[in-house]
Amino acid sequence: MEFDQSNIVEGADGQNAPIERIEELFSLLDLAESQVSSSADKAIKDINAFCDALSAAIEAAIETRKQALTAEVLKAKAEGIAGLKPYREAVGSRLGTINESDANICSALSRPGKRGRSKNTLRIPRKEELPHISVQLPGRALQTKVCNEIMAAGKVSSRGPVQLTFIEEKPGALLLNWEEVDQGRAVDFCQFRLQRAHGDACHNPSLEANFHDIYRGPDASFLAKELIPGDPYTFRVCSRAEGDQEWSAWSLPKVAITRLKHFGWQIDNPNYQVTNDNKIASKISSDPSVLYSCGAQFGPGHSIEFTVLEAKECMSDEGFGLASKKLAGDSLFQTGTLIVNGQGSIFVDGSAKTTKLPALTLGSKVTFTCEEVASDRMRVHIDSDNKTVTYDWRVPAQPLLFVLGFGQVGWKVLVE
Length: 416
What we know:
By secondary structure, the protein is an alpha+beta fold. It is about 25% helix and about 30% strand. The protein contains 4 helices and 20 strands. The strands form 4 sheets. Strands 8-9-20-11-16-17-18 form a 7-stranded antiparallel β-sheet, with no helix packed on it. Strands 10-19-12-13-14-15 form a 6-stranded antiparallel β-sheet, with no helix packed on it. It is elongated. The model is unreliable at about 1-15 and about 115-120 (pLDDT under 50).
């Protein structure tokens, strides 16, 4: 949080600042101090939790390994003693029937290295043949390694090296932008990680458990889709430099809401079945028919993607796109429309353009993005299969309808 100190001093010295403004500044300072204190308290709590968990895990691992090694030693001991049992039994049985011919037993017991004097002589295994149980331990090397790892664990950051800078409402979505704010780090970040939690996690810390990844990649912006209009969502971002294994500290979390309804189709056209929260339209009759969006939802700064979920043979009079108003009849190719037909041809105000996109097939994705050029003109970018075309379309810079029109049964299109 940044403050303009010169304005504060000037206002205070010149006694020109109204009392309401002074009180507002004090409130801002209270919030700033609260953020610093609460974040520090949370950091200390996280440190204690981490150290306690690490200590418990290390103690448990040491105890488990100690018991495992001890069990191996006891097993080796038991096996060694069990191997001597037959010799003890044989010696005991001879002691019960000792005679002159067995006198060699005493000699064998006193001289275990002497063998072969009598076929009745008992031989006790030599020391070299008996188990001599030992254990090989790493000594101080492991202790030093573990201690060094622990001493290097953790890092305190005053703030994350990247911060969310701008969040823009989109239909059923939010466009998030972030940038590097730590100018002292001469690092080119190769990857960003964006997380989202449903709800206001800033005022309800229990919602932090809901954070989950929604984007990982090199871009410094992302369109978070499938949001419930009117519901708050909390976002945070971190980064990782090339070669690093660990992620950086999180940015300051930000709560945002989109009040714009997500893109959807009208549901009152009997020639189409509209499902999935009005996002998917399926052609269910063979009558040519135009299906409209539920209102003029698409405008400057928006991006809309049509995805073909099911397809039939491409026809030249079928397709989808944008319209500035309701159309006369069931033809898409009229003044006030920008259409991509089933064969990939592009029509602006009913006239075909020379540039073509790939034909519509199963899995095709066509994206329309527009920006305002003048009050009566918009620039529309159309992307499909890594090919992009751009047109300056002479229509009022205001929200537009999106439309589709098919005659064959079986087409299914998702819009988002």
